[in-house]
Amino acid sequence: MWPDATLLEMLRADDQKAFNILYHKYSSKLYYAAYQIFKDQAVCEDLVQELFIDLWVKRHQLKINSLQWYLKVAIKNRVLMYLRTQRAQLDISAIEMLADKYGADSQLLRKDIHRALDENVASLPERCRQIFRLSRTEYLSNKEIAALLKISVKTVENQITIALRHLRAGLSDHLPSIAVALLVELLK
């Protein structure tokens, strides 16, 4: 077996045999590393192929100390870059689809969200609801609420935390609608 340093020197001298040896030595390991991150056989195979094509194309410019380390880092970077571009494409198309779907109905959507929010606030225990409304609709500080109701600031903080947890749980079914409503408003 040839040492990597020798194979790299041969590769820089345009030796295709060295390239083939490197490919057979590392391609399955790189595929496995890629597959550990992203479980799509065809994509991982393509990413490994692209990595080796770049290795051949850039063979004269490469300054590599450890080929094994370089290839592992390169394949991980390729997989992560692929995932980022795929996610960005999915996010943009999903936003466009949702904006198209809800854009015309944004007024109805806002009413639905407000109704759900009002119902969830109404279902809070009385004291918790009172503190939440003073905080979120009257815009009083925790200290002001505590003084007004003659309770400690810590009690106010605890009640607001309880209210927010309750609302988060109660509105979880409406989160996609809330996100769409916000996006529609931002895109106007």
Key features of this structure:
elongated; 188 residues; 9 helices; mainly alpha; Arc Repressor Mutant, subunit A; Rna Polymerase Sigma Factor, Chain: A
Structure description:
The protein has helices spanning 4-12, 16-37, 41-57, 67-103, 106-122, 126-136, 142-149, 153-170, 175-187. It is mainly alpha-helical and 188 residues long. The protein is elongated. It has 2 domains: 4-96, RNA polymerase sigma factor, region 2, helix turn helix motif (Rna Polymerase Sigma Factor, Chain: A, Orthogonal Bundle); 105-187, Winged helix-like DNA-binding domain superfamily/Winged helix DNA-binding domain (Arc Repressor Mutant, subunit A, Orthogonal Bundle), CATH 1.10.10.10. It has 9 helices and no strands. The N and C termini lie far apart (64 Å). It is 81% helix and 0% strand. Helix 3 crosses helix 4 (67-103) and helix 5 crosses helix 9 (175-187).
Terminal-residue CA separation:
64 Å
Assigned CATH class of the largest domain: Mainly Alpha
Secondary-structure-based class equals: mainly alpha
Rg of Cα set: 29 Å
**Largest sheet entry:** none
Tell me the overall shape.
elongated
Q: How many helical stretches?
A: 9
Uncertain ranges: none
Which percent bin holds the helix content? over 70%
CATH level-3 fold name of the largest domain: Rna Polymerase Sigma Factor, Chain: A
At the fourth level of CATH, the homologous superfamily of the largest domain is RNA polymerase sigma factor, region 2, helix turn helix motif
SS elements, strand count: 0
